[in-house]
Design goal:
It is built from 28 helices and seven strands. The protein is α/β, with parallel strands linked by helices. The chain has two domains: about 290 residues, no CATH class; about 130 residues, 2-Layer Sandwich (Transcription Regulator spoIIAA), CATH 3.30.750.
Length: about 550
């Protein structure tokens, strides 16, 4: 019994690390260690920058990258996924801290973690495919714009005490402080950004541009004692040591009003992590387990707040770097986390010299690179419905927030989808066509008996297209004695369409007329059977093909009064 439970659990919760270690050898270990160290070095400036931009202390980003990065690699469903804080969370986390405080952000993150575990346990990992591409492009570009906007203060050295979280107040604050630009800060930020942007790609594999920019910027500030803001002047430095276990306090009343922001974190975390894993799949010709990945992401977000960490998810850029560095298993992600830990234990005191201007430059480049700007340039090539979804999601993300953007974007996408499927559904008089088999064409050429009308129904019969059934009788000059509906091409049917079909049958029966259904597919067949519709029209009036339908119609014609 115990073995049976263990087998079931291993099928339900099976980290990719277990399978990846089969046949693991020294050569793969060496490659994974090299890739892990490379990604760990790259992750350092990003983790610090993401945390500061989110309104948290720099160590929160580093500890998140260490703890969440380790858990996501050890327990996740992808062979090469790298987890940690990401730019996509900056706007959301900053808004939560401004509105609810840092302590409640920790609770929000834990709640989001529970939601992610529940989503994975409920096998909802594949639901990501139901998010249309224009919607994802819209909110990704919106987040990119907001990240860049959030760095205006640090990039230009503006004198703004607290940067507002909302879009228009943020613009207003920037406008009011426009005359407080610090020239030295601006030069340092601009040079750092240009250095990262034009850094030779051939060198990036061995010496990543963000870490080189960070080292050079820090060295210049330290050597020349430049009067610019640094981690030391703003935060006092980064603790040299392990994070302390500090569970956040909460009440059930607190949980109630944090549900909405927690859902936002969970939604974005799920989307970004699964997108990142999918990108990695394409690079290594593999297939990740989306449900296992969600559960690992959830566990990481439950554990990390106990050590003061911020939300974490799969990081697309770091995952891609991990693959390009030769990673073959989750071991590289574990090494990435351990590399960050060693850096903190050894080099934390040097962080006091890191200029915020260089960190802002790194984030501005991250924002530019994460945006899918090609979507705007090719907007005219898209269907109008896709363009509307993209623009609506983009504008709502920038002006309001991600939750509103995704909700409205999905609603608009669903409306357009319903319209598209409705337009594809046709009900028309059956005539000879290339789609018909030879037997049906022959039957129609021989002629249809007087008093019999044959209609071809094509597409999905659902609430959006159900009225097309009711319009059948209004399009005929005379009410037929027998109406045959060819349903071979009806792929699905819902209760609304069935109701209209029942109404159509009722009108025919009221005048002593008959309805014959010809060749319904599996799903419509079972729906009508279970609803008792076949009993209403008579099972003898449900036939497999047009030949049988015409035979049955001839049997019914003599019954005309």
């Amino acid at each position: 019994m115990d073995n049976s439970l263990l087998v079931k659990f291993s099928q339900f919760f099976r980290p990719r690390l277990i399978d990846a270690l089969r046949g693991y050898d020294k050569a793969r270990l060496t490659t994974d260690i090299t890739a892990g160290i490379t990604v760990g070095v790259i992750a350092l400036p990003l983790a610090i920058a993401f945390a500061i931009a989110s309104g948290a202390k720099p160590e929160a980003g580093i500890f998140t990258a260490i703890i969440a990065g380790f858990i996501i690699s050890a327990l996740g469903g992808s062979r090469v996924q790298i987890g940690g804080p990401t730019g996509a969370f900056i706007v959301i986390v900053y808004g939560i801290i401004m509105q609810y405080g840092y302590a409640n952000l920790l609770i929000c993150t834990m709640m989001a973690g529970v939601m992610l575990v529940a989503m994975g346990a409920a096998r909802m990992g594949n639901l990501i495919k139901f998010f249309p591409r224009p919607l994802i492009m819209g909110f990704t570009n919106g987040i990119a714009v907001l990240i860049a906007l959030s760095q205006v203060k640090e990039f230009f050295g503006l004198q703004i005490d607290v940067m507002p979280a909302d879009f228009f107040p943020k613009l207003q604050a920037i406008a009011h402080a426009a005359n407080t630009v610090d020239f030295l800060t601006l030069v340092l930020a601009a040079v750092s950004a240009l250095f990262i942007w034009f850094y030779p790609k051939a060198w990036a594999q061995k010496l990543p541009s963000p870490i080189i920019a960070l080292v050079l910027g820090t060295a210049v500030v330290a050597l020349f004692n430049l009067p610019v803001e640094t981690i030391g002047t703003r935060f006092g430095g980064i603790p040299q040591g392990l994070p302390t276990f500090d569970p956040p306090e909460f009440t059930f009343q607190t949980l109630r009003y944090l549900i909405a922001p927690a859902m936002t974190i969970a939604l974005l975390g799920a989307i970004e992590s699964l997108l990142s894993a999918a990108v990695a799949d394409g690079m290594i010709d593999d297939k990740h387990d989306p449900n296992q990945e969600l559960m690992a992401q959830g566990i990481a977000n439950i554990v990390t707040p106990f050590f003061g960490g911020i939300p974490a998810t799969g990081a697309i850029a770091r995952t891609a770097t991990n693959v390009r560095s030769g990673a073959t298993s989750p071991v590289s992600g574990i090494v990435h986390a351990l590399t960050l830990l060693v850096i903190v234990l050894v080099a934390a005191p040097l962080a006091v010299y890191i200029p915020l201007a260089t960190l802002s430059a790194i984030l501005v480049v991250v924002a530019i690179n994460m945006g899918e700007w090609e979507g705007f340039r090719t907007l005219h090539k898209y269907p109008k419905s896709d363009s509307a979804v993209l623009l609506a999601t983009f504008l709502l993300t920038v002006i309001f927030d991600l939750t509103v953007a995704v909700e409205v974007g999905m609603f608009v996408a669903i409306l357009f989808f319903i319209k598209r499927i409705t337009d594809l559904t046709h009900v028309s008089v059956a005539e000879e066509s290339p789609q018909m088999d030879d037997g049906e064409s022959t039957l129609l050429r021989k002629g249809v008996p007087p008093g019999v009308m044959i209609y071809r129904v094509f597409g999905a019969l659902f609430f959006g297209a159900a009225d097309k059934l009711e319009a059948i009788l209004s399009t005929t000059h005379a009410e037929p004695d027998v109406l045959i509906l060819k349903m071979h091409e009806v792929i699905s049917m819902d209760a609304s369409a069935l109701h209209k079909l029942e109404h159509l049958h009722g009108k025919l029966r009221k005048h002593g007329k008959h309805l014959i259904l010809c060749g319904p597919h599996t799903q419509p067949y079972f729906l009508m059977h279970q609803a008792g519709f076949f009993a209403q029209i008579g099972t003898e009036n449900v036939v497999a093909n047009l030949e049988d339908a015409l035979k049955r119609a001839k049997e019914l014609l003599p019954q005309k009064a």
